[in-house]
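Example S7 (C-alpha cells).
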C-alpha cells in the first residue's frame, strides 16, 4: 500500500510535481502496490487505462471466434468445456473493466471507445476459426501466449490490475490445457484429424507470435512501462520464452512448426526463429485483418440488442430505491 501521508486525492495538476513523482517511483521500486486513491503521475494513469481497457476489450472480442464453435462442438463434453471457457473470457473482461474503472473512467466510456473503433484489442481475434482444430489451437497457443504475457502482470505495480490478473491466470492455464488436450486427441486420431490439427497450427502460429507486440526496437511503450513496473519483460523476451516453451509441445504432438528457419541454438538454449511479417500485423491492427469488420459488427449488434437489459436493470434499481424510501417514510 502506498503511504497515505502523500495526501493522495490531490492528483489534479500534480503531473509536474518532482517530489511526489520521486516518492511514487520509490514506492514502485520498493515493490509496493499503487492503489486507486494513491497519488500517481497522469501518464501512469493514462498508460494503465489504455493497457487495461485494451486487455478487457480483447477478452470480450475474444469470445467471438470461439463462441462460433459452441453449437458445432463434436461432443457434449467438448461443448460444455468450450461454453465454460467462453464464459470465463467474458468474466475476465468484466474484472478488467472494473479494474480500469478504479482509474477514473466509466464502463460506458470504455465500451463506447471500443464500439466507435477508437480502442484497440488483440490482433489475434481478427482471424477466423475455420475448423474444430482451431479451438484446440486457440486454447493451446493463444491462451498459452496470454499466460506468458499475464503471469508477470500478477506483479504489476497497480494493485487492482495485479489482483485481477492472479485470478485470470488460474483460469487461463486451464484453457491452455484444455486446448492442448483437443490438439492431442486430434494428433492421435485419424490421418484426417491429424492433418486438421497441423493446418490449424500452420494458420495460427505466426499471428500468435505477433500477440507479443512489435519487436523491442519498434515498441513505443516498453521503457517507461518497465520503469513503472507495469511490464516486467520486453516483448521480445516474452516471445522467446513462449517459443522455447511451445516448440517441444508441438514436437510431442508430432506436429511441425511452420517456420523453415526454426532451429535450436545449443549455446544459448533458445529456439531461433524466422522473420515475423510485421506488415501483416500492421494491417490487422489498422482494421484490415480477415475478420475486423465482422467482429465489430457482432459487438455493436450485441450492444444494441442488450440495451433493454441495461434499461430494465436501471428501471428496477430506481423502483427499488423508491420503494425503500417509501418504506422509510412509513416507518417514521
Ligand atoms: Fe481470458
Ligand atoms: Fe482464456
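Recovered sequence:
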Amino acid at each position: 500500500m502506498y503511504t497515505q501521508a502523500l495526501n493522495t486525492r490531490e492528483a489534479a495538476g500534480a503531473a509536474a510535481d518532482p517530489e511526489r513523482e520521486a516518492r511514487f517511483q520509490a514506492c514502485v521500486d520498493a515493490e509496493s502496490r499503487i492503489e486507486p486513491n494513491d497519488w500517481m503521475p497522469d501518464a501512469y494513469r493514462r498508460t494503465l487505462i489504455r493497457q487495461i481497457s485494451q486487455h478487457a476489450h480483447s477478452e470480450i472480442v475474444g469470445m467471438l471466434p470461439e463462441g462460433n464453435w459452441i453449437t458445432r462442438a463434436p461432443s457434449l463434453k467438448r461443448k460444455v468445456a468450450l461454453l465454460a471457457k467462453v464464459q470465463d473470457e467474458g468474466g475476465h473482461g468484466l474484472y478488467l473493466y472494473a479494474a480500469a474503472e478504479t482509474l477514473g473512467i466509466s464502463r460506458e466510456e470504455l465500451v463506447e471507445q471500443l464500439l466507435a473503433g477508437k480502442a484497440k484489442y488483440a490482433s489475434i481475434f481478427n482471424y477466423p476459426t475455420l475448423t474444430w482444430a482451431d479451438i484446440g489451437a486457440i486454447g493451446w497457443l493463444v491462451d498459452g501466449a496470454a499466460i506468458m504475457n499475464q503471469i508477470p502482470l500478477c506483479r504489476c505495480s497497480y494493485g487492482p490490475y495485479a489482483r485481477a490478473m492472479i485470478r485470470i491466470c488460474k483460469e487461463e492455464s486451464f484453457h491452455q490445457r484444455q486446448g492442448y488436450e483437443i490438439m492431442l486427441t486430434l494428433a492421435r486420431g485419424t490421418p484426417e484429424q491429424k492433418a486438421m490439427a497441423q493446418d490449424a497450427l500452420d494458420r495460427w502460429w505466426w499471428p500468435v507470435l505477433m500477440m507479443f507486440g512489435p519487436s523491442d526496437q519498434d515498441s513505443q511503450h516498453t521503457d517507461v512501462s518497465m520503469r513503472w513496473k507495469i511490464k516486467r519483460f520486453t516483448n521480445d523476451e516474452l516471445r522467446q520464452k513462449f517459443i522455447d516453451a511451445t516448440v517441444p509441445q508441438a514436437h510431442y504432438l508430432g506436429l511441425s512448426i511452420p517456420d523453415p528457419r526454426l532451429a535450436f541454438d545449443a549455446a544459448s538454449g533458445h529456439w531461433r526463429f524466422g522473420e515475423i511479417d510485421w506488415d501483416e500485423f500492421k494491417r490487422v491492427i489498422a482494421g484490415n485483418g480477415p475478420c475486423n469488420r465482422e467482429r465489430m459488427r457482432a459487438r455493436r449488434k450485441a450492444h444494441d440488442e442488450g440495451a433493454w437489459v441495461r434499461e430494465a436493470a436501471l428501471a428496477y434499481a430506481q423502483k427499488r430505491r423508491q420503494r425503500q424510501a417509501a418504506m422509510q417514510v412509513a416507518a417514521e
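Notes on this example. The CA atoms of residues 68 and 234 lie 33 Å apart.
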